[in-house]
Amino acid sequence: MDRISVIVPIYDLAAYLYQCVQSLVEQTYRNLEIILVDDGSTDAALEICEFFRKADSRVQVIAKPNGGLVSARKAGLAHASGDYAFYVDGDDWLDAGCLEAYHDLARRHDVDMVIGGHKREFLGNFSYAHNALPTGLYPALRMQEQVLPAMIQAGDFFQHGIRTYSWGKLYRRSLIDALQQRVPDEITFGEDAALVYPAILAAKSIYLSDLTLYNYRHRPNSILQAKGFTHAEATRMSRGFGYMAQALGARQDTRYAFLRQLQAYLCALLIIRHGAYLGDPLRYRDYQPFGELEPGSRIALYNSGSFGQHVYRQLRDNPELRCVGWFDRDFRENRLLKMDVEDPSALAGTDFDWLVLASFDPAVHAEVAALFVRHGLPQDRIRRVVPPRMGFASFIESNGFDPITFLPRGPRS
């Protein structure tokens, strides 16, 4: 019977860790080794790990000095002996039948990877996320024709064909042993994608599933209090994208458009991190990610995720635009966090010129379109993100990165 090595990197997650590990020991698939990697936690995480180690012989504990997520995953994988590997973040948890369902697909189709969707939990509210590419078996030829040209960027700007997360994917361990060890410990931006996309390229076959048995905990962050895009953040981005370009052979590739896919990915991230440049009227007029917004426009904002929070912060600093409301279906949860997010139904009574939709997710786009239909609002007042008019490479250059190497070199004047 195949063994699955479940690897859990942990750093200061004591508040969530018991639920995570309990969900692993209760899996219906029993032939597991559960490797808990405490990465120098300063809370009670290590004590919780030791509790489970003493209670279940399948649990192993690795205690190491803090070295970051990549180093923790490397340490866990180096101790693994399973036929398959599965990553779980220490603040997430699995449905009881998760690993059994993944293993059944892996064995039935003899694939190197099984890639599923996930549930997103935010203060008790659940939503579902899936990959954009169709579900099913992808042997080598179908991967070359349909997966590799669209795994990073698929369809409209911007959408991943396959989501970047390392977790929620079952790997044949021999596929990722070397690939994971090659990822530099210093990569702290795009560290998941740095493994996932090279692994897909190296795989002989994969299975894309609509399973949503992995529970991702969306924890509140502090973007609203954060400063603008910094040089340190640019450096972190550069390391991640530079490594992905190297690992995928993007500069030599002429078949799968890896370089263009990475450029599209970086453009989307720059738009998100800069809050669509709405805090700088001059730069916004150059880029217009949401199209032309006339001075004096009354802006309604939809979506309270990281993109929406960056946009809201920028709108507050824009003297030419007025934010007249911020809306999201998670408004109750956001209210608990002292964020001024309103019930989407209140949009019908709001006097606005444009609704800025701060999301690349087609599901959110459909949600807003349905909301407008329900309230009889004109669809042409919705402003979605559009690709840079100047092209991906020029946009990246103007933001201070080399579009080939992804090295930072200062914004173009």
Characterise this structure.
α1 packs parallel to α2 (45-55), α8 runs antiparallel to α9 (258-273) and α9 (258-273) packs across α14. The protein folds into two domains: 4-217, Spore Coat Polysaccharide Biosynthesis Protein SpsA, Chain A, CATH 3.90.550.10; 278-383, Rossmann fold, CATH 3.40.50.720. It is an alpha/beta fold and 413 residues long. Helices cover 37% and strands 17% of the residues. The protein has 14 helices and 16 strands. It has helices at 14-25, 45-55, 69-78, 98-109, 140-147, 173-182, 193-202, 231-248, 258-273, 281-287, 306-316, 331-336, 362-375, 392-398, and strands at 4-10, 32-39, 59-64, 84-87, 93-94, 113-115, 118-122, 125-129, 136-138, 169-172, 206-208, 214-217, 298-302, 322-327, 354-357, 382-383.
Notable characteristics:
globular, single chain, 2 domains, Rossmann fold, 413 residues, 14 helices, alpha/beta, 4-stranded mixed β-sheet, 37% helix, Spore Coat Polysaccharide Biosynthesis Protein SpsA, Chain A, 8-stranded mixed β-sheet
Short description:
By secondary structure, the chain is an alpha/beta fold.
Helix/strand structural class: alpha/beta
- Described by the principal axes of the CA atoms, the overall outline is globular
Strand order of the largest sheet: 3-2-1-4-10-6-11-9
What count of helical segments does DSSP give? 14
Secondary structure: helix percent: 25-40%
Using the 3D structure, state the CATH architecture of the largest domain.
Alpha-Beta Complex
Largest sheet: 8 strands, mixed
Question: Superfamily at the CATH H level of the largest domain?
Answer: Spore Coat Polysaccharide Biosynthesis Protein SpsA, Chain A
